[in-house]
Every structure is written in C-alpha cells, then in structure tokens.
Design goal:
The chain has helices at 102-111, 113-118, 121-127, 129-135, 153-163, 300-307, 315-322, 327-331, and strands at 22-32, 41-52, 64-76, 79-86, 190-192, 214-226, 229-240, 248-261, 267-276. With 340 residues, the protein is of the alpha+beta class. The protein has one domain (22-331). Strands 1, 2, 3, 4, 5, 6, 7, 8 and 9 form a nine-stranded antiparallel β-sheet that branches. A hairpin with a 5-residue loop joins strand 8 (248-261) and strand 9 (267-276). It is globular, with a radius of gyration of 20 Å.
Length: 340
Amino acid sequence: MPLFDVPVSQPWGPSPLRRPGSVRRTMTLDATWPDGQDGDVIFAGDARDIVTEWQGGGPVPKPAIVATAHIDVVAEHRVMLSVTSTPPRPELAQLSGARAGGYLRAEIDKALPGEKRGGTPLYLLLDDLAGASLVGGWAWSRWTQDWMSRLSVQERADHAARMEGICIGFRPGSDALSIGGRPVPDQNASRVPSLVNPEDPDGWHPLIDRGGVNFRRARRIDVWREGDVIHVESGFQDSASAPDGGDRIAIHEYRLTATADAATQCLRSVVARPGTLPYKECRAAPVNVDALVGVPLVDLRNEVLLTLRKTAGCTHLNDMLRALAEVPTLASHLPDPVEG
C-alpha cells in the first residue's frame, strides 16, 4: 500500500475539448436545503448525451443531443420521500421510503431494470443518489464555523467507529479516524474553476447556480474509437458553493482513462488519477484498479463492488469505475469514421 505525507490538491480545471467523432455524457446532481441544514434535502439532477461529428464548423463542432434525463428528489436524512423524473417513470414511486446506499440501488434495479440494462442517463442519475447523498452534507462545513460542535465527542467517536474500514481512506490508522476525523473545516479541499471549458461552452449541459449552500456531484464520460480500441476519458467532482461567491470548493476529484476491446467489449486498461481528496490515505485509492482488467464492461457495476470493496477501494472512485458499464451504450452512438 503506497503511503503519502499530505493529501492531494491538484485540481484538474475545466474539461478538455470534445474530440471529433466522440460521444460525451455529462451529469450533475445538485443538493440544496431550503429549510436549513436540519430540513429536507432537495436534489435536482440533469444528464445529457451528445455526439460530436467528425466534421463541423469552427474548432469544436456543435454537438447533437441524443439523450437527456432529469430527476427531482426530496429526501430526509438519506431516506427518499419522493422521486420524479423526465422522461416520466411512474415506477419511481416505489422508491419512497428507501434509504440511500445499497438498498436504494437494489430498489432502483427492481423498479426500473431496463434503465440499468440500457445504460441510460436516467440510470446514472438514480444510481449516483447513493454517493451524492452520502457526501452532500459536507457542503455545510464550508459555511458553518462550528459545524463539528453539533456532535458530542462521543458521537464523533461513534461515527469514526462506524466508518472504520468502509473504504481505503478510512482504513485502520487513517487520519480520517481521529475522533470524528480531522476538524472538518481543515479537511483538504481545493478551490476549483468552472468545469465548462471557455473554448467549448457546448461541452456541458447548462450548470445552474443554485445560490446559498449547495452541493454538486458532477460527472463527464468521453468515448471515442480508434481501430479496434474503444477509448474512455472520464472526470468526477464533488464540490460545494463558497460563502464568498467565488470558485466552488472541491472535496473529491478524479480523472480516469480506460481502453476496451471493441469486439469483445472487455476492459483492456484503466488508470485513475486523483486531483483533490480529503485525507492523505485517500491517495492510495487507485492502487487496485488493475484488478478489473479483462472484465466485460457491462459487468463492471457488479464486479467493482466485489473486487474493490471496503479498504480495497474508494467509494467515489468505485462509482466512476462502475459507470464504465455504460460505455457500450455511449459507443453505440459513435459516428461512422470519415473515409479517405
């Protein structure tokens, strides 16, 4: 296990320009608390798939939108109170009362099995509710000086005991497991610019300024093909709004590159690089990703949970790796190569 002296804080900056002949999926899950920190959390999620043709006007061609999805969620302490979507799915009513985490994912699969099989934008939004609801409350630590004082020393110790061993960052002996972890305002975080590249404003779906205290999980998956190889470049960021109204503050950032065999659609290679993570122990998160090489892409949602469970992986990096299962769906939209 590699050891590090300090947490990583090397923000990735804006997204790369779209490649000609590629498909891009972007997704955001925004959380707000209209009634304050102790009130219900409101999630608004958007996802979009776009195709960039081989030829087009300007340095970056205008994309064609091939799929979109939106969800509105009301939750109380990670328990779903209501979930609605566009396109509408009446089956989402079955999620009322489900607690975010593995149980919620099982209920999503039961209610909407076709969304998972189809690797749809809606499925990515629903699947990411588990991770976004787990991290979202951290946004308040950026706005509240006495955030930790809400918990007693015993409550913080109990929380640390529950978290020990849950992931590679919370492995035994980690800084994250001092009583309640390091003082939350001192958790490593980075100021980050907009994900939208100023030279490619069409590269993201509209990102809405929610105002006040808000949290955002943002994802990008780029897919293109070269010969018999499918290439993937993906970005992930968890961030909060800043009290000064400036650049957002990120707590988790990763970029991932991967290749897959176009014929068998099995994973050939995968490399994950962190940009910002809260504890120095988190930097070891990518160490085991090679264990997934050879796995069929469509099996990764399950295989990641089996192979990189608990201290073998990072919850948030695992979410990125699991979403590689949707690459075949994205690759099906790739434009035909230009002849000549």
